Amino acid sequence: xxxxxxxxxxxxxxxxxxxxxxxxxxxxxxLWLADEKSLAELELADTRMYLQDxxxxxxxxxxxxxxxxxxxxxxxxxxxxxxxxxxxxxxxxHDEGYALVTHIWDPSGVLIHFVKPKDSHDx
Length: 123
Description:
Elements: E1 10-12, H1 16-26, E2 29-33, E3 39-44, E4 47-52, H2 57-60, E5 64-68, H3 72-86, E6 90-95, E7 99-105, E8 111-117
Parallel strand pairs: 1-4, 5-8
Antiparallel strand pairs: 2-3, 3-4, 6-7, 7-8
């Protein structure tokens, strides 16, 4: 069997431009934007995804992105700043057993988990 070369997810966007601005403010780099501005390829930590101008509430509200980080406090602060800028919500760092976690909801309701695994933080 041939090896897979890449995997990307398609992230829903209710308001494409607002979501694009949100992800860029949070640190994703825009690699490509379709001429009709309905699809963008974004990258964070050498991992890419497509942001698409397509929205179904039940799908968006159940879609999640898991981002492993080395400094959870820095990401909580960054997420808080971006949430304030976009009128969105976050939650405080909390222990979920396997990791320290903080969340931010994107403009379409997608839940982003910023996670610092327990084996990588000081107790």
